[in-house]
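hey team, just a heads up i'm posting the complex here instead of the shared drive bc the drive is being weird again. everything in one block, sequence lines first with there labels, then the predicted structure for the whole assembly after. its two chains so it's a bit long, scroll down
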Amino acid sequence: MAKVEVKVCLGTTCFVMGGSNLQELNDIIPQKYGDKVELSAANCLGLCSINWEYSKAPYVKVNEEVVSEATVEKVLEEIDKQLGN
Amino acid sequence: MFIDIACSQKKKYNQNAYGDYFASNRFPNMNRVVAVLSDGLGSGIKANILACMTSTMLLKFMESHFDIEKSCEIIMNSLPVCKVRGISYSTFSAIDCYDDGNAKIVEEGNPDFIWIRNGEVLKPEYQSIQSKDFKNRKMKVYNIQLEKYDRIIFCSDGATQVAMGSKRYPLGLERSGLIKIILNKLEQEPEISSKNLSEYLVKQIELIAPNKELKDDTSILSIYCRDPRESLIFTGPPFHGEKDNYYAKTFMEFKGKKAISGGTTANIISRELNIPVIAKLSMNSGKLPGLSEMAGVDLVTEGILTLTKTLEYLESGNTEENAAKTLMDFLLDSDVINFLVGAQMNKAHYDPNLPIEIEIRKNIIKKIAKVLEEKYLKKVNVQFV
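-- predicted structure starts here --
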């Protein structure tokens, strides 16, 4: 089965809007999913400036799916969905 | 030629204030550096006041090219008189130096400065000036021409008189002993920085002192003429997006050390030059996003937050281990610092929901440039693109 790719945006906006809390994923994801999920960071996914008036930072990409106003719970939920759990 | 200047000091044993005082100023526009090292009479607070007054006054006089003879008389007359000894006294060494090597040195009472070229100690000629009001005071004025890789060492008498009366050094280490230590170190590390050399010398002097207890305040002021270490920091996307490629190339072609401060900026350079940038989701970065990596670039950090924190560290001197500390070390390791500041605004930063810490990039860079120039004596160029 293909791995689920999770990309956490660490751009300035995302980071101050709560992205810093998403660093917890670094502990949770390997524990919960082992090597089924690959976690990485991005300097800036560029999503905040596309739709800035309705900025919903922080953003996380789970495969191609964008999780806006991301929290640890929301990201895990999306991962579960993609894994078909 | 860059004039690398640093001073290292150690207090007399059991004193809580330095009796020597060092003051300096750099004028990047005039390619000029002025520095004064003064040793106040006695030790502790009293000496500290005398030395501090002497250094700061003399620095101001020299900066404004005021006649040196008159300056000294004014200083002597304004120093408070010691109750115990009935005199007012402080010694000093001062240098006014330009990047082309032209230097004027004035000494009064401190040990003669040490001028080293190619491992040899030079003996420059000087003019002796007798004070009109103070009979026991004589100044030495030198006009010298420095060359690249020359070194000049000033010291207070605490350095040359250390261990005086001991079996090994009945007359103290003396100037000749200090020269030996310096030449030895320079043979091992010909390119040692002024900061490291002055710290090393003070440490050695402390080791020589019986029980490592210094009997007098000890200062070493080191000057090293060398090629400047340059660095370039690219922060913020250029205002005209169509010039991204040009600026990315300019950045990469820069010969000194390179840093990128900004996620979008890193992405632009990555896109234009097709070099991948790898962000690290590091855990212990605390309140700041961690570092990223890019081939050919020495340091990649997030932008505004890291810069704001770096400014705070530069101003206060207190740091924590994070990306801002790494950026601060990067800056302090350079003599000439160039900022390439993209003027395009990040619309997302104007969201009213965002915390107030997000400042305008231009302002932060201006403040960083100011503190680097004034507090750390760096040469700073800022270019907005």
